[in-house]
Amino acid sequence: MTAVAIAAPSIFYHRPRHVARYASHGKASWMTETSANKPRGAPASGFPGQGAFGLALRVHQALVAGEQSAWVYWQMSEGSAVAEQTLTNDTLQANSPKYVALKHYARYIRPGGQRAPVTVSGSTDVVASAYVNAATGSLTWVILNGSASTQSITIEIPGTAAASYDLVRSRDGSLWQASTLQPSSAQLAFSLAGYGVATVSASTGAPDPIFANGFE
Q: Do the Cβ atoms of 114 and 133 come closer than 8 Å?
């Protein structure tokens, strides 16, 4: 008999009682048909808002609290302007805030990756997750700042540090800003703007071409 995963087409399947149900079957669960996020960046009102930051936070919640093995938005694009059901369109392409929110995960967390435990201390506004891929030798962190103020971030590097790490940061009005981090005393340090998202990654293997260069 072929093993199949369980598709969970609703945010409600991230609730603890539902996680226990599909975990008891030994199946992976995929979050599908996600939508309803507005084509904007930081929360316009309330928290986490229905824009790109809210989307990034909901991916985090699905992967961490919901223990999902895959996360799929309703639709990549269509002929009209970006709407609740789409991530981008043929005009914005890789410059759509919602597209970039997902790219912070999908560019670096590739098939075969496994989520690793993370402990966040010093702030209740910052959340983080980490992913290891044994096949590519990659280690990736995704960090979100849930406050309106800039936060100082320090990552403790487990094991042997790489020579350098890729850092990509996005905030409202400034998307996918790439730079390089050099480790110091087994730590990585940087700042993260209010309602910002950061991805930090290092890999000893060949990069996956998906999401590598703009809109692909």
A: yes
208 confidence band (pLDDT: 50, 70, 90): low
Instruction: Over range 73-95, report the average pLDDT.
Output: 89
Structure tokens at 51: 């824009």
Decide the pairing of beta strands 126-133 and 138-145: antiparallel
β-bridge pairing 6-8 and 29-34: parallel
Torsion of CA 145, 85, 212, 208, to 10 degrees: 100
What pTM does this model have?
Answer: 0.84
Is the backbone of residue 11 left (phi > 0), alpha (psi -120 to 50) or beta?
Answer: alpha
Q: 2-6, 75-79, 82-86, 181-185: lowest mean pLDDT where? A: 2-6
For the chain, the maximum distance between any two Cα atoms, rounded to a whole number of angstroms, is 53
Q: How do beta strands 29-34 and 70-73 pair? A: parallel
Tokens of 216: 């692909």
Q: How far is CA 117 from CA 9, 25, 67, 144, 170, in A?
A: 26, 23, 12, 16, 24
